[in-house]
Amino acid sequence: MKLLRWVVPVGLAALFWAVLPVSASEGAPKGDVHRFKIGALDAFALRDGSITMPNDGTVVGVGEPPAKVAALLQTAGLPTDKVEFSLQPLLVRAGKRVVLFDTGAGKADWAVAGQLPASLRAAGINPEDVTDIFISHGHDDHLGGLLDADGKLAFANATIRLAAAEWAWIRQRPANAALVAAITPKVATFRPGEKIAPEITTVDLGGHTPGHVGAEIVSQGERLFYIGDAAHHSIISVQRPDWTIAFDVDAAAGKTQRRALLQKAAENGVRIYAVHFPFPGLGHVRPQGESFVWIAER
Q1: Does residue 229 lie within any of the structural domains?
Q2: What confidence tens digit (pLDDT) does each residue in 89-126 have?
Q3: For residue 104, which of 170, 26, 45, 191 has the smallest C-alpha distance?
Q4: Which residue segment(s) compose the domain that 205 sits in?
Q5: Domain assignment present for 220
Q6: What is the pLDDT of residues 210-228, one digit of tens each?
Q7: Strand partners for 187
Q8: Helix (H) or strand (E) holding 70
Q9: 135/163 Cα distance (integer angstroms)
Q10: Max Cα distance, the chain (Å)
Q11: CATH number of the CATH domain containing 143
């Protein structure tokens, strides 16, 4: 598909996103679901779409020569002039709870996205079935599916769960005024380390944003670590964890969190769910020299 243009929309999360247009022949978004288990829990990777950004040294691998980033991408057989990211919220059935982890980009014009509703239908789940929404952080590609096209709650029965520090950060951003007004009655805050369900413990991953969090999901001795945006790319973020991305509010803290997370995951064989890695975003990391390599499940 031919790249239409580089766009610079308003807002931190949308900064420098590159749009790949959807042709008219593609029609309505189609759902895509990957079903898997976490112990006794049913889990679903739900495709929402994708985002593409330029390899120009200002977005991914900030400050690194684009040729250096291109060489790394080339070794993985990937395009070298752009960097592609998937978008796949996670859904877990935990007892009577139906927990959605992030909501994708919605109908944002800087992403080829908006497939989440169709993916939910393909999984046999109605929006009203969702009881809880865990928001890892307040960027638009994670908040974008909270409201429908009319600005109303897309998941009317769900409690929206946010770290208290992140909710404070979201509220102070003027661009979020309409969103904040719509979701405030449904928001419940937590501190990192607290549980949002018996099987789900929140984990501090601050750096990407002030209150960025992940989640550890445990059932029958099996664990899955939902890492939010602690790592964005399965090659760049994993093999060069000290390279930064423009969207980290605190680049130094983000780099520290990323390396620590990957080190711990590699040492302990942690199963990871990465929302921006190639669909379905499931896998492990293992050591490779002074960095790591992503081993995808599928």
Answers
A1: yes
A2: 999 999 999 999 999 999 888 888 999 999 999 999 99
A3: 45
A4: 5-20+29-290
A5: yes
A6: 999 999 999 999 999 999 9
A7: 160
A8: helix 66-75
A9: 8
A10: 50
A11: 3.60.15.10
